Amino acid sequence: MKPAVSAAPAKKLSYKLQRELDQMEATILQAEEEVAALHKQTEDPKVMADRARYTALCSQLGEAQTQVRKLYERWAELEAM
Fold this sequence. Notes:
single chain; mainly alpha; 3 helices
């Protein structure tokens, strides 16, 4: 007796997408380490005293945080495929 409803076969990721997924954790870790390093630099009193440098670092930190968020979104997207 055959089941009334068969499960749809799982989609297999292309080689390129699977490779991206396999490397995503390491990529995110590296990006998070960059965020941590930038954050630590912004806490340095010498950096805080230099308004131009502090502003530039804060801008870099914001961009790095955005990159981490996008990487997590992409990871979720790949996992859902």
